[in-house]
Design goal:
- The structure holds two protein chains of two kinds.
- Chain A is an alpha/beta fold.
- Among the domains of chain A are: 88 residues, Translation factors (Elongation Factor Tu (Ef-tu), domain 3); 111 residues, Rossmann fold (3-Layer(aba) Sandwich), CATH 3.40.50.80.
- Chain A is built from ten helices and 16 strands.
- Chain A has a seven-stranded antiparallel sheet with strand order 6-1-2-5-4-3-7.
- Chain A starts with a strand and ends in a 15-residue tail after the last helix.
- The C terminus of chain A is likely disordered.
- By secondary structure, chain B is of the alpha/beta class.
- Chain B folds into three domains: 126 residues, Orthogonal Bundle (Fumarate Reductase Iron-sulfur Protein, Chain B, domain 2), CATH 1.10.1060.10; 163 residues, FAD/NAD(P)-binding domain (3-Layer(bba) Sandwich); 152 residues, FAD/NAD(P)-binding domain (3-Layer(bba) Sandwich), CATH 3.50.50.
- In chain B, the strands form four sheets. In chain B, strands 3-2-1-4-16 form a five-stranded parallel sheet, with helices on both faces. In chain B, strands 6-14-7-8-9 form a five-stranded parallel sheet.
- Chains A and B meet through helix 2, strand 7, strand 14, helix 9 and helix 10 of A and strand 5 and helix 14 of B.
Chain lengths: 285, 474
């Protein structure tokens, strides 16, 4: 059991969860994740760590409410506890002096790239960020990024902030930059990472992704998180989650990511545990 | 004259090995309750009374932890169950577990003199009887603990090896702390072996017993990640590594990453640890599969195939490349599986998995095998029969072909040497690793083996750690 210090919705459907976990906070490096179980009967889900404070002994997680397990987490309040929060798991994002680094974040990845940006900057890199969302009101932590990095670019589907369109417009952003980045690091939903890898293929820039597959134990035991990287079977939990985006078999990865979509929906139909689920929830449609 | 005498003696020997009541196959294939129901007191005493109480008991030589087998059986015959469990626990702190999952037919029972008449004493069933009898009394007697030594031992992993080390060292007066990566203690006993073979309440009882003795248990703590062995050594006098064989093997054939292809670890963990059979009450999702093919022939394969039936699969198959005689599973488990309706596709090797347009497995490309010359292990090597390829329809595959040792501890502990297979280098007599103050035992040293061998290794390591803590010798 670990204590919840704070839980708040930062933009619609996107939540910040601060957990008291001094052992994890003193050990974690950017790009690592924890496995969290909201309640005693809950699924174990991997969540990227968005920030941490070793002195206060806390870690922060940004997550989107998408299914049964995140619904439990989204209803926690300060003073509650999570049944499990274990980590830090996975290998940290490689931090070195690369030169110009472009971070691409969407969804929870806007959060989990923040410590990456801090560490890269401390290493003397020139860090810029592209934040992607459907609309301006879904972009968060601008106040944290603007003072930290060289420049913050935004891409919104409806054009309400920055470049209008999808992440496939990323090459336009890159062409408009004063210097071509030496490295791109992408965190966020699978589509964002897959598309970024796709549209940067011809740009001759290394693209590093932080994979987010389904996991159970997160220590190599179950093998759910296997992914084909450059033709080889890898386990994202112990071999990753950082991989070269151009080497991933994205079609396979997307299919594996969606393995339980039907069951997730079923859970919401059957569940009477959530007050918001009285015939109004989108999952009913 | 002589012949007459022998005959007379033999006729007094009861050759009727008592069966243990079990749930009927029709019933049990629809529930997760334990299959074997255990001896009644009467059956246990009848079975125990058949024991010849040999002067030089061969059964003991077949036991990896050298239990005084005639000793505890003698107690049962007399109805002294309290004395029996005491005798049992002198050598084995987890009798309820080993009484259920030990391969007795290839260990103690295989040495029993009555085996010559195919009527060996049912040692495992008697062991289980005593452990269950004690639990049913409601109050477990806590053995006396030695005076506190002030020495601290960290045990990494709470499977059979770790639990044994903890149980031995706490009684010797040391402070013991167990670190477990998952949210429940018990290791393979809780995530791997299904409820119907080893009820989780039994494992919990053993863990609670250790806690009552004073063992501290930290779950959700991944040694190698949350803390390294080096950091633990700063706080503890000695460390035992029992992290098990937790990295599933795959066959490196096409289609293994299709949806619906599981490692046995995943499949069983979803069902056991995450209580998939209670879905959607427990929220770890599980798929309803119609036809499940389990690749492999060991106990884990049998567990998976039998679990599939209980989850409602219309057909559950074992796909194994050798013949029935070579099945590595316990005879009893293969028999249970057959009775429940598991179909055995023997001498069959999967070559590739074929998926549908959504990335779900729909067929297995297989080839038939025949047995050739015996290999180094003495088993006949399966050879492909040319041109015998065929396709098997299925909507799920469980790959149960074994595990390599979990790499987290070796990878994060400098100076802890591993073999080519990834197992830890350790002295077979003491479990001492190549690192100062670090011992190891169980599957992390031997590669995937049995619960009782892990317990035996834990016992040896505990002895060596105790010697180090009291004399400084290691």
């Amino acid at each position: 059991m670990k204590k919840v210090i704070e839980r708040s919705m930062i933009v619609p459907n996107m939540h910040l969860l601060v957990i008291e976990a001094p052992e994890i906070a003193s050990k974690v490096r950017p790009g690592q994740f924890v496995i969290v179980r909201g309640g005693d009967e809950s699924e174990r889900i991997p969540l990227s760590i968005a920030d941490y404070d070793a002195e206060k002994g806390t870690i922060s997680i940004v997550f989107m409410e998408v299914g049964a397990s995140t619904a439990v987490l989204a209803r926690l309040n300060a003073g509650d506890a999570v049944a499990t929060c274990v980590g830090p798991l996975g290998n940290a994002t490689s931090i070195d002096t690369f030169g110009d680094v472009l971070l691409v974040g969407g969804c929870y990845g806007i959060g989990s790239l923040y410590p990456v940006a801090k560490e890269l900057k401390a290493k003397g890199n020139k860090v810029s960020v592209v934040l992607e969302a459907r609309s301006s009101y879904l972009i968060y932590w601008l106040n944290k990024y603007v003072p930290l990095v060289e420049k913050v670019y935004t891409i919104t589907r409806d054009g309400s902030l920055g470049q209008k369109g999808h992440i496939s417009r990323l090459p336009d952003v890159i062409h408009g930059m004063p210097r071509k980045p030496d490295r791109i690091i992408v965190n966020g939903c699978t589509y964002l990472m897959a598309h970024t890898s796709e549209v940067t293929k011809d740009l001759d820039i290394p693209v590093v992704v932080n994979l987010n597959p389904i996991m159970i134990d997160g220590t190599g035991m179950c093998g759910v998180c296997r992914v084909t990287v450059a033709g080889q079977m890898k386990f994202a939990c112990v071999d990753g989650p950082e991989f070269d985006g151009h080497d991933i078999d994205w079609k396979e990865f997307l299919a594996r990511r969606k393995a339980y979509v039907t069951e997730e929906a079923l859970f919401f139909r059957r569940s009477d545990a959530h007050a918001h689920n009285e015939g109004k929830c989108a999952w009913h449609e | 004259m002589n012949e007459e005498k022998t005959q007379e003696k033999t006729s007094k020997i009861d050759l009727n090995r008592r069966d243990m009541p079990r749930q009927s196959p029709e019933m049990r294939r629809n529930n997760f309750d334990e299959v074997a129901l255990g001896y009644t007191e009467e059956l246990a005493r009848l079975e125990a009374s058949r024991c010849l109480q040999c002067k030089k008991p061969r059964c003991v030589t077949g036991c990896p932890v050298e239990i005084d087998i005639p000793g505890f059986i003698g107690c049962i015959t007399k109805g002294d169950f309290k004395g029996g469990i005491k005798k049992l626990k002198e050598k084995n702190c987890l009798p309820a577990v080993s009484g259920r999952v030990c391969p007795q037919e290839s260990q103690c029972e295989s040495k029993c003199i009555l085996g010559n008449k195919k009527a060996e004493i049912a040692i495992g069933r008697l062991e289980r009887f005593l452990a269950d009898w004690e639990a049913a009394q409601g109050k477990v007697d806590l053995p006396p603990r030695a005076k506190p030594t002030g020495k601290k031992v960290a045990v990494v992993g709470s499977g059979p090896a770790g639990l044994t080390v903890a149980g031995d060292l706490i009684l010797l007066g040391h402070e013991v702390t167990i670190f477990e990566a998952l949210h429940k203690a018990g290791g393979v006993l809780v995530y791997g072996i299904p409820e119907f073979r080893l009820p989780k309440a039994i494992v919990q009882r053993e863990v609670d017993y250790l806690k009552a003795l004073g063992v501290k248990v930290f779950t959700d703590f991944v040694v190698g990640k949350t803390r390294s062995i080096d950091e633990i050594l700063e706080e503890f006098d000695a460390v035992f590594v029992g992290t098990g064989a937790g990295l599933p093997w795959f066959m490196n054939i096409p289609g293994e990453n299709l949806n619906g292809v599981y490692s046995a670890n995943e499949y069983l963990t979803r069902m056991n640890l995450m209580k998939g059979y209670m879905y959607p009450k427990s929220t770890t999702p599980v798929k309803k599969h119609v036809k499940v093919a389990v690749v492999g022939g060991g106990n884990v394969a049998m567990d998976s195939a039998r679990t599939a039936l209980r989850m409602g699969a219309a057909e559950s198959h074992i796909v194994y490349r050798r013949s029935h005689a070579e099945l590595p599973a316990r005879a009893e488990e293969a028999e249970n599986a057959e009775e429940e309706g598991v179909i055995f596709d023997l001498l069959t090797l999967p070559l590739a998995y074929i998926g549908d347009e959504n990335g779900w497995v729909k067929e297995i490309e297989c080839i038939q095998m025949e047995l050739g010359e015996p290999d180094a292990s003495g088993r006949r090597t399966p050879v492909e029969k040319k041109g015998s390829n065929f396709r098997m329809q299925t909507d799920a595959v469980v790959c149960a072909i074994g595990n390599s040792p979990n790499p987290l501890v070796p990878a994060t502990t400098p100076g802890l040497d591993t073999t080519k297979r990834g197992t830890l280098v350790a002295d077979p007599e003491t479990g001492k690793t190549t690192r100062d103050r670090v011992w190891a035992g169980g599957d992390i040293v031997t590669g995937a083996a049995t619960v009782i061998l892990a317990m035996g290794a834990g016992r040896k390591a505990a002895r060596a750690i105790h010697e180090f803590l009291t004399t400084g010798k290691q």
